[in-house]
Design goal:
By secondary structure, the chain is of the alpha/beta class. The protein folds into two domains: 130 residues, NAD(P)-binding Rossmann-like Domain (Rossmann fold, 3-Layer(aba) Sandwich), CATH 3.40.50.720; 180 residues, Rossmann fold, CATH 3.40.50. Helix content is 34%, strand content 16%. The strands form two sheets. A seven-stranded parallel sheet has the order 8-7-6-9-10-11-12, with helices on both faces. Helix 4 links the parallel strand 4 and strand 5. Helix 1 packs parallel to helix 12 and helix 5 packs across helix 7. The two termini are 24 Å apart.
Length: 327
């Protein structure tokens, strides 16, 4: 009987996690013969550095079609919900299964969205900046509003948006949502009043962006869209940075109508130190951390690894993005 072929697993961008013990142990316990290693590279560089691999694991690294060709991989496992850094269409054409972790951080992101909204709504950035400079005056942040007098709007209404809406509703917000891919009934069932895109812009005191990055959404929120938002509105973005045109956002903060912004994602991550959004008293920026809790970190590592293993075995599970590519 011939020995079983060793499965070569390459983990990209190792700085995504503090160590790889969880991933390594799961692969070694689930598959009989495994070679597990880590190589810090991303994008086209994968083609020249990785050589052949059966499974590529990534948290932040992008995986273009040329990397798939060069490595002859069968599975690309992404430790995240979004897969916009992976050419899924090219992967499907090549029979490469792409996996993600769909539900590991819905509650964390929902909490983060509402936390950012309340921080801006209650003027915390302006108060913090003023008191740091020696001031002690409630007028340093105006207008300060309450949830009970405000409308909370969602652009796209998936699981994370619904987690935020449950919390926003409990705080007293009036909740509305727009999602062109859902029926009005589905939006109502999720706890929000369905509205058109124009109404969403016109009515939202807080507007949360929850859409994936696509050709339709990239740069959608630009100067023209911001100009249609209500006076003193607050923008929250925990989805993808490139949905927002940052120059347009800065202009809308400086000249109106926006009052503030809570951003967990930026167009370029990590941002340059010169990014003007980092120095504003009307903006809260967090380092793409809305997903994070100790529990979510454990879930994403374990589920992400098990989903990649299932795809290697040609098993259809929730987390295989392109099941048509399964062997």
């Amino acid at each position: 009987m011939s020995p079983q072929r060793t499965v070569r697993v390459v983990h990209l961008d190792p700085d995504g996690f503090a160590d790889l013990s969880v991933e390594r142990e799961l692969f070694e316990s689930e598959l009989d013969a495994v070679s597990f290693e880590t190589i810090d590279c991303s994008g086209p560089a994968i083609s020249t550095r990785v050589e052949e691999a059966d499974v590529l694991l990534t948290h932040y690294a992008t995986v273009p079609a040329e990397a798939m060709n060069a490595t002859d991989c069968s599975v690309i496992g992404r430790y995240a919900t979004g897969v916009d850094g992976i050419d899924v269409e090219a992967a499907t054409e090549r029979g490469v299964a792409v996996t993600n972790v769909p539900t590991y951080c819905d509650e964390e992101v929902g909490e983060h969205i509402v936390t950012l909204a309340l921080a801006i709504l209650r003027g915390l950035p302006a108060y913090t900046a003023a008191t740091r400079e020696g001031a002690w005056d409630w007028r340093d942040a105006t207008p300060v509003r309450t949830a009970a007098d405000s409308t909370f709007g969602c652009f796209a209404f998936g699981r994370k948006a619904r987690a935020a809406v449950r919390r926003a509703d409990a705080l007293g917000f009036d909740v509305i949502a727009h999602d062109p891919y859902l029926s009005d009934e589905e939006i109502r069932d999720g706890g929000a009043t369905p509205v058109s895109f124009d109404d969403l812009l016109a009515r939202s005191d807080v507007l949360s962006l929850n859409a994936p990055l696509t050709d339709e959404t990239e740069g959608l929120f630009d100067a023209e869209v911001f100009a249609r938002m209500r006076e003193d509105a607050i923008l929250i973005n925990t989805s993808r940075g490139r949905i927002v045109d940052e120059e347009g956002l800065i202009d809308a903060l400086e000249t109106g109508p926006l009052y503030g912004a809570g951003l967990d994602v930026l167009a370029s991550e990590p941002p340059r130190e010169t990014n003007p959004l980092l120095d504003r008293d009307d903006v809260v920026v967090t380092p793409h951390a809305a997903w994070y809790s100790d529990g979510a970190l454990d879930r994403v590592r374990r589920r992400g690894t098990l989903n990649a293993i299932a795809a290697w075995r040609s098993e259809t599970v929730d987390g295989v993005v392109n099941p048509a590519a399964l062997r």
